[in-house]
Amino acid sequence: MRFKADEIVSVLQTEISQYRSKLEAKEIGRVLEVGDGIARVYGLSGVMAGEMVEFTRTGVRGLAFNLEENSIGIIILGDYLGITEGDEVRSTGELLRVPVGDAMIGRVVDPLGNPMDGKGPIVSSVTRAVETTAPGVAGRQPVNQPLQTGLKPIDSMTPIGRGQRELIIGDRKTGKTAIAVDTIINQKEENVVCVYVAIGQKESTVAQVIENLRSNGAMDYTIVVVASSAVPAPLQYIAPYAGCAMAEYFMYEKGRDTLCIYDDLTKQAAAYRQLSLLMRRPPGREAYPGDIFYAHSRLLERSAKLAERWVIVPSNADDSKVTDDWSVVRNPDNSPVVFVGPLEKEHAEHMAKEKYHNHKLAKVVGSGGSLTALPIIETLEGEVSAYIPTNVISITDGQIYLQPDLFFAGVRPAIDVGISVSRVGGKAQIPAMKQIAGSLRLDLAAFRALEAFAQLGTELDKATQAQLDRGYRMVEILKQPQFKPMHVVDQVMIIFAGANGYLDKVPQRQVSAWEEQFLRFMSEQKADMRETLKKERKFSPQLEQQLKAAIEAFVSQFKAPGDGRS
Amino acid sequence: MIPYVLTASEDEEALARGAADIGSLQVAQVYAEALLNAAEKAGQVDEVIGELETLLEMTVAPGSVLRQFFASGVIGRATRGDVIRKVFDGRAHPLLVDFLMVINDHDRTTLLPAILFEAKELRDRRAGRLPVAVHSAVPLAEDQLERIRQGVRNQLRVEPVLEMKVDPELLGGIQLRIGDWVFDGTLRSRLNQIRDQIISRSSHEIQSRRDRFSSTNGN
Q1: Helix (H), strand (E) at residue A351
Q2: In a domain, B213, yes or no
Q3: Which of A30, A99, A430, B55 has its CA 20 to 30 A from that of A510?
Q4: What's the domain range around A471?
Q5: Same-domain status, A300 and A349
């Protein structure tokens, strides 16, 4: 081994030369009682709430959670079994931080950022505080860019925008995680950094998710934070905040789009309830502490679409390197004038046009990142009016509701379109999708009502029967197998075909085969048209005619699968 | 350093583990304040506290029957009261006897150590004094102590009361404990620091350029 002995000497030397001048000052306390992931400490009278403390003997860290008259309640982040009564506790004067940065991508880590995948240490010099405040009003801008999940029912009817918080809610085993994983897989070509936070789940389930991500090539841009059900409650409690901090780095520092999935917040709430009860905080409804709403709201509030920063620069400037300082417009004190957000950008456009010829408007590199959050909540027997579900529904910008009935009827993803909503994502939808999916929700709702009526076995008139047939085909079209996210252009084309009645004559069982062959036909034989749609993102009357013609051309080519009939 | 409660068991470890829980600490504070107020009114704070301290030393001494007497639940309140009167009347300060009777009536005799701890702290706080624990490897000379006293006085504007403790394991230097703060200038902690620093420096070197440590022969 070629280790430099003189390095040791230099460390020793500086230490010895500073020996007289330095006095180590620390504040200490002693453990009064310890158990279940928490400790009560006597002393440490100057410690601040949320400050990190260290158990000197074992080196385990903790967080000051409760500050009381005579003692401090500490949540222990690590192995609490090694800590005994009387142990010394030292305050550190720091907040809890986790390593962040490019080195984290592709790794599986615990909530403190320690590697769990056996791929060696993570070398990252950048850290970020686990708890940070959310960006303010001025730092944000409205959601304006879609985050494509690659799932037809979501992208068409409950579209998600970058920076949005969309809740995925449903009973156990209804495919909540499947939606999240498919969304991650679909970000392969979208340049979105993904963070998957697993809280309170079985290790075997998490291992399966990681394997699915890996085999679909999604680990190249994903960080997985794992706090399984075996780890102490404090770690489960901080896991989503840690995952959020890892995503925030890319949003704030690199201006990138990020996606953070909290799977699931029900378990995090249970872990927090455990901690709070052990700390003897007063229990409230369902024994959750009074600040459980705040625990979730401050986490989800951290997702944002950051405002872009614009500066006026000479027209020959290199767009990929623009900083605030490049602005040619100056304040009286010579500080650069930066235009933040869409409103000021408009103002700047006018200004550049009128006053600054030979100049252009350029975006400051690293501004305008986003953090999209997909929290997951598990309900019991479809009970959405329980405490935690109602809380998180009210915090988020919409929810995707999964129904076990639909799931077992073979409608997968089992999204109940009637009560699933997206409050802001519509603005971010691509125009083509908006054009064709506008009435889809209402049509499907009408179909569901009609379907219930038709089950009574009454004789139906022709128009009603036609509407029913169309509905069955649309439901069939909106089905999608797992790990097969679809490009939004393909989604648009197949929904267009269904909504315009081209599948009405196709037997229900053959719809998926029709869809597959149609999409293959479009990408192989009408590739130029697909590209045009991809580029223009909306239907011109002309393009609409072309697509209709293409579908008609395909209909004659369609080969019904032999085993499709019985 | 931590206030504790009396346990019937005599073994040292049980004593160390008999740390007061938060509830009894609060109770002890109330009794301590009451005792101190009464003693102040009588103008005999130091005497009462001094006697209480002696009593406690006798109580926790190995083989002491007093420990059993105060900590055991077998002895009834009335019996214990009688004995307290018989043993301490005339020998101890009347205020202390009354105080023992009061805590006996309230079944709080096990809290004696915690009460003494809180009373001493409260007394020092009221008098503007600050207990400073000085740990060193060798006994310090008076002029050295005076320098420490002077230093604390200048920094914190309070009158320090030094409590000396010699601990050869510190190897050299001194350690001051003022309240919850520890000012550590001992050789032992410095050596520990150097050790930690070398370990973290080496692991940083290893992690940042792992290729330097792998064999180039391709095993």
Answers
A1: helix A341-354
A2: no
A3: A430
A4: 430-564
A5: no
Residues of A in contact with B21 (CB under 8 A): 32-33
- Domain extent, residue B100, equals 12-125
Length of chain A: 566
- CB-nearest to B2 from A15, A42, A69 is A42
Which residue of B22, B175, B198 to mutate against A (max A Cβ within 10 Å)?
A: B22
Number of domains in chain A: 4
pLDDT of residue B219: 43
Whether A42 sits inside 8 A of B198 (CB atoms) is no
* Interface TM-score (ipTM) > 0.95: no
* Single residue among A377, A409, A427 that ends a domain in this structure: A427
Residue B78 shares a structural domain with residue B165: no
How much of chain A, in percent, has pLDDT values that exceed 90? 70
Q: How far apart are CA A101 and CA B39, in angstroms?
A: 63
Record: contact B2-A68, CB cut-off 8 A: no
B26 to A46: CB separation less than 8 angstroms, yes or no: no
Q: Are B31 and B95 members of one domain?
A: yes
For residue range A162-207, list pLDDT tens digits in order: 999 999 999 999 999 999 999 999 999 999 999 999 999 999 999 9
> Looking at the whole model, is its pTM more than 0.80?
yes
Please give the residue that has the higher pLDDT: either A453 or B33: B33
Rounded to an integer, the average pLDDT of A57-71 is 91
Q: For residue B17, give the chain A residue with the closest CA.
A: A85
pLDDT-derived band at A528 (thresholds 50, 70, 90) equals very high
- Rg of the Cα trace of chain A? 28
Which residues lie closer than 8 Å to B121 by C-beta, 6 or more apart?
Answer: B32, B131
Per-residue pLDDT at A138 exceeds 60: yes
Which residue of chain B is at minimal alpha-carbon distance from A9?
Answer: B198
In tens, the pLDDT along A536-562 reads 999 999 999 999 999 999 998 898 887
Asked if B93 and B148 sit in the same domain, the reply is: no
Residues of A taking part in catalysis = 423
How far is the alpha carbon of B184 from chain A, nearest alpha carbon, in Å? 5
Same-domain pairing of A416 and A522: no
User: For residue A12, which residues of chain B lie inside 8 Å, CB to CB?
Assistant: 194, 198
Q: Are residues A24 and B180, on separate chains, in Cβ contact within 8 Å?
A: no
Identify which of A1, A24, A121 has the shortest CB distance to residue B189: A24
Mean pLDDT (chain A, rounded): 91
Closest partner residue to A23 (CB to CB) among B26, B185, B212 is: B185
CA of A25: which chain B residue's CA is closest? B183
Q: In this complex, is the C-beta atom of B208 within 8 Å of any C-beta atom belonging to chain A? A: yes
Nearest to A26 among B19, B29, B184 (CB): B184
Residue A213 shares a structural domain with residue A314: no
Is there a single domain that holds both residue A164 and residue A292? yes
Residue B179, CA atoms < 13 Å, CB-side half-sphere: 15
At A120, the pLDDT band (50, 70, 90 cuts) reads: confident
